[in-house]
TrEMBL record:
Pfam families cross-referenced by the UniProt entry: PMT_2 (PF13231), YkcB_C (PF24878)
Main location: membrane
Species this protein is from: Mycobacterium deserti
Classification via InterPro entries: LipidA_mod_glycosyltrf_83 (IPR050297), RgtA/B/C-like (IPR038731), YkcA/B-like_C (IPR056785)
Keyword Kinase: no
Topology relative to the membrane: Multi-pass membrane protein
Residue stretches making up the Glycosyltransferase RgtA/B/C/D-like domain: 71-227
Protein name: Glycosyltransferase family 39 protein
Keyword terms: Cell membrane, Glycosyltransferase, Membrane, Transferase, Transmembrane, Transmembrane helix
Origin superkingdom: Bacteria
Keyword Signal applies: no
Subcellular location: Cell membrane
Transmembrane segments: 12-31, 92-113, 120-141, 170-203, 215-233, 295-313, 325-343, 349-370, 377-398, 404-426, 433-452
Domain Putative mannosyltransferase YkcA/B-like C-terminal: 493-584
Length: 606
């Protein structure tokens, strides 16, 4: 008979276990959080803007004077904006919400998995997720992925509840709303979980097929409303009274949704982007040099456990909760892994944090089912194989950073091989001996990702593309001003901030990261010419000249140009044209190595 562990948390031991899990997760995600400073200054500057101006908050503007938005829908920024309004602008108010969302996501995953497979499975699932290096990175960072993951885990939990006996359709509608708001955090990526959700509900839901189809339609409507209201608001709002939609070439959030942040990520056709990142496209991408250290550690184990769990439950009733969960989380894992592996556009390694909950759930449920059937040599072999593959893979991944804790590879490999061998005969052991083998196996499998997650957490990171582990401080080592914000000297900050209240923008510079550094340092609006990549036509040269003529911009700050305006065949060249015009018309002044142009002076050719 199908079982749902609704009372799994009633005893003292599960309550102690989940309390320890959540406390340890909080410690991992909150420890010395401010060491990363502004982390992704691009979003920190937008948080500064939204924390002081309601229009900037609504649209996700890069600056408080509302020149241009960030290149995402702003739900994740709304959380930061509220925190900044309450606690003031500082690294903790910017980063702590993400850490707390991480703890909440781990707690929700525990509830979801524990409900169908018992509290032990829930604890294992939550531990796997918490100790995934990509999670230890992103839940200490201010990129929008933290809110996305929290909302999707919540949606998965609600889909599971919708599949239970006597469940109302509101659970499924709630899941649709959660995915819709996930869209407002990171747009179309939120929809990658939908195939798994739909298949699980259609195949295993308690209600009749026609009612299940009707419920899915209602959930889809709830998703469309919860995501679409914002698109409609922005599209219908007069463009003259809102900021330009960053990341689009035609000031359109629909274009941003379907292009730069949508199908362009799959095809590589992203006008204004930085070019394709498909050099490693294929099934090996998630294990390769780019993404492997972020997510690969327990990925094979998750796939093995999901497949084995579905095989074990094949004769269970159609509505079996464990099979429902495996279909749901396994679908999430498979679809997201395929998309990340074969996307031809911009896909960064930290995106793989979206796989962490699914891997954790598949491992927690699958291992539990296999362990209960360990007397069957087929189940014992699957368990043994999962441990062997995991520990061998861990040794391979650790070898990529060979100078860091070199002895850990040998310990993990030896313990893993030993545990894998013992698991083959665990079904014939005494309970105490079998539990000792299980503990050895779990320690061997979790030691490497745990160590790498701790190393990630204690390493400060900055820039738009942070990386996991102890060796790559600060993220992608790209051109100055491309992915890292400048830290201006005090003299530059003082010059930019001087008399700032007399101008709409204290300064302007090409690229959002360049602008963010000066804006955060001076606490004044700085126009990001061309948006994030410097390839958006905002403002145009004519518009910029009008701003200068009206004395709305004090300084233009010269910086390293983005690749887009000078070298790409797609995207606007307006930013390059503006920089050239400023250089031709105004006299440069160098302050602490930074070139400033005072735009309030009379242009040479006026």
């Amino acid at each position: 008979m199908a079982r749902t562990y609704r009372d799994g948390g009633a005893s003292v031991l599960p309550r102690v276990g989940v309390s320890v899990l959540l406390a340890a997760t909080a410690a991992l995600y909150l420890w010395k959080l401010s060491a990363s400073g502004w982390a992704n200054a691009f979003y920190s500057a937008a948080g500064q803007a939204g924390g002081t101006d309601w229009t900037a908050m609504l649209f996700g503007s890069s600056d408080g004077a509302n020149a241009i938005t960030v290149d995402k829908t702003p739900a994740a920024l709304w959380v930061i904006d509220v925190s900044v309004r309450i606690f003031g602008l500082n690294p903790w108010s910017v980063l702590a919400p993400q850490a707390l969302m991480g703890v909440a996501a781990v707690g929700l995953l525990y509830l979801a998995v524990g409900r169908v497979a018992g509290p032990g499975a829930g604890l294992l699932a939550g531990t796997v997720m918490a100790l995934t290096p990509a999670a230890a990175l992103i839940f200490r960072y201010n990129n929008p992925d933290a809110l996305l993951v929290l909302l999707l885990v919540g949606a998965a939990y609600w889909v599971q509840r919708a599949c239970e006996k006597d469940a109302g359709r509101w659970w499924l509608i709630g899941a649709g709303v959660a995915v819709g708001f996930g869209f407002l955090a990171k747009m179309l990526q939120a929809f990658l979980v939908l195939p798994g959700f739909a298949v699980a509900y259609l195949a295993t839901g308690q209600r009749g097929l026609r009612r299940r189809l009707g419920d899915l339609l209602l959930a889809a409507l709830a998703l469309a409303v919860s995501a679409g209201w914002y698109l409609a608001l922005v599209e219908l709002w007069p463009a003259s009274s809102r900021p330009y939609i960053g990341g689009s070439q035609h000031n359109s959030i629909v274009e941003l949704t379907l292009g730069y942040n949508g199908f362009g990520r799959l095809t590589g056709d992203e006008p204004g982007g930085l070019g394709n990142l498909n050099h490693d496209v294929g099934w090996g991408r998630l294990f390769g040099a780019g993404m492997g250290l972020d997510i690969a550690w327990l990925l094979p184990a998750g796939a093995i456990c999901a497949a084995a769990g579905l095989l074990i439950s094949r004769r269970a009733p159609r509505t079996d909760p464990a099979r429902t969960a495996l279909m749901l989380w396994g679908g999430w894992l498979f679809v997201t892994a395929v998309v990340f592996s074969f996307a031809n556009g911009i896909v960064h390694a930290y995106y793989t944090v979206a796989l962490a909950p699914a891997i954790g759930a598949c491992v927690g449920i699958g291992v539990t089912l296999l362990w209960r059937n360990r007397s069957d040599i087929r189940a014992a072999t699957a368990l043994s194989g999962a441990v062997l593959v995991t520990t061998v893979l861990a040794a391979v991944l650790l070898a990529r950073n060979a100078e860091w804790i070199p002895w850990l590879r040998a310990i993990v490999a030896v313990a893993g091989v030993g545990a894998a061998a013992l698991l083959l005969v665990a079904g014939r052991m005494t309970r105490t001996a079998a539990q000792a083998v299980a503990a050895l196996a779990m320690a061997a499998c979790l030691a490497a990702p745990a160590a790498y997650s701790i190393a990630t957490a204690v390493t400060p990171h900055s820039g738009a593309v942070p990386s996991v582990g102890p060796s790559r401080h600060g993220g992608f080592a790209g051109p100055a001003g491309l992915l890292n914000a400048p830290t201006p000297a005090a003299a530059v900050t003082n010059a930019v901030a001087a008399d700032a209240d007399r101008y709409t923008w204290a300064a302007a510079t090409v690229g959002s990261n360049n602008a963010a550094g000066y804006q955060l340092a001076g606490g004044v609006p700085v126009m990001a010419v061309g948006g994030f990549n410097g390839t958006d036509p905002a403002p145009t040269l004519q518009q910029f000249q009008a701003f200068v003529a009206a004395k709305q911009i004090h300084y233009f700050i010269s910086g390293r140009m983005m690749p887009g305006p000078g070298t790409h065949t797609s995207g606007s060249r307006e930013a390059a044209a503006i920089a050239e015009w400023v250089q031709e018309q105004f006299t440069p002044v160098t302050v602490e190595g930074v070139v400033l142009y005072d735009l309030t002076q009379t242009p040479r050719n006026s």
